[in-house]
Amino acid sequence: MQDNPALDQFIGFFEADVLNLYASHPDKYNLDRGSFSGVIQTTDEYFYELESTERLDECIRQIRFGYHSKKDRTLCIGVFLPDLAKIPDIELKKWKPFIVEKSLLSQEDERFNVWYDRYIRVRDSQIGPKEKLGVIIKKINACCKTLVDKPLYTEVPDQSVGYPISQNSHAYEDAHQRLYGFLVDSLSKECLMELAKLRNKTILEAEQMKPTTLLRHVFCEFDKNSKLHNLLSEISKQRSKSSHGVRETAVKSDAFEDFYRDLEIAEEAFDALLLIIESEFNISSDHEQNRHEIIKFLPKIVGDIEPHYSICQSTKMEGKTVEKVGFGKRKEIEKFHQSEVLYIQFTDGDILAIETGSNALDFLYRKGINPNELNIDLMLTWLPAPSNRDEYIENLTK
Q: 279 and 210 in contact (C-beta within 8 Å)?
């Protein structure tokens, strides 16, 4: 690796095996291993435990790192030293046996340069295939929720999908075991059945098929030899090695690089699936993803309203066309809460005024108010159109 005084000042290199110290304690630490970078943090649960016992000095706020290859093709990590300086001394001692001399590093590692540019030099840079795959599957899910009211995947790849720490076959198989949980186990058969109906596909014995097989029949553009199904088969194959029976002895391999390429294939295959869905159903994944994010925060109706409440008049809007909208802060009323006001004028001349009402006055002289006791209501007032239909909303709001 080339000399870089600034790099030496901020980055220290350690064997990647040091990450096992934290991976083996998921109850205490979150270990997020991305394509180019990673971070170690104390879990929320462990943080609260430390806080309750006045041991917050043992907390690890964050340790940021990037991957770097060595001359012998094994992995090490470059750690942001200011982060490491903040961890407890007893924790810091665990890192010392894993120190890697700079002379052992490979001359150049593009993967490390991406991390360095993004997190140290704070420059925009590309995201890795794991992150891209997560974005693509979220977009597919958004489209499917709009089309059939069900996501294609019940789970989306997250930080629990990590790159192999060690360069051997067992590490590679273990990484695929986690990926299997997302790309195979989480594939929704119910969604696929509904998509089959939309695509006018009659699939015999669909109920008895495995989801991955059903996927191939619903989207016949991907046959048995396609990248998508070769990928899913490979994930299943590698997962079975670590999950069933006694697996073969581990052998040295380019586990990180191989898994990286698998994720690149996954990114390409699922992007092709997304393109088919968008094209066939004339749907925008960006629009639908944004729409479903908004849906999450829409207020939920959980009860009926008394028929004499003014909000019941809102049904009068049905079938009408909005011509003009006005809004602003309502003129203050003595001994009454402030409110915004919304005026909606329809093409037939009717106008609906909406403001808020509350029982805030009931708490004027009380202490220790429970927020659930405060009620906010919508107050609707309908103004019929004038007989000559030439009155405008501006005259009302002056």
A: no
pLDDT range class, residue 167, cuts 50, 70, 90: confident
Query: Domain residues of the chain, as ranges?
Result: 5-120, 129-296, 310-397
Nearest to 171 by CA among 75, 245, 95, 84: 75
- Express each pLDDT in 322-352 by its tens digit: 999 999 888 888 777 778 889 999 988 888 9
Q: Yes or no: say if 76 and 16 are a contact pair by the CB < 8 Å rule.
A: yes
Structure-token match 């006791």, residue found: 373
Indicate the pTM of the whole model. 0.71
Q: Do 183 and 160 touch, CB atoms closer than 8 A? A: no
Distance CA 209, CA 189 (A): 9
Q: 217, 189 in Cβ contact below 8 A? A: no
Fold of 5-120: TATA-Binding Protein (3.30.310)
CB distance 50 to 130 below 8 Å: no
Q: Of 210, 148, 158, whose CA–CA distance to 184 is shortest?
A: 210
pLDDT tens for each residue of 56-94: 888 899 999 988 988 888 889 999 998 998 888 888 899
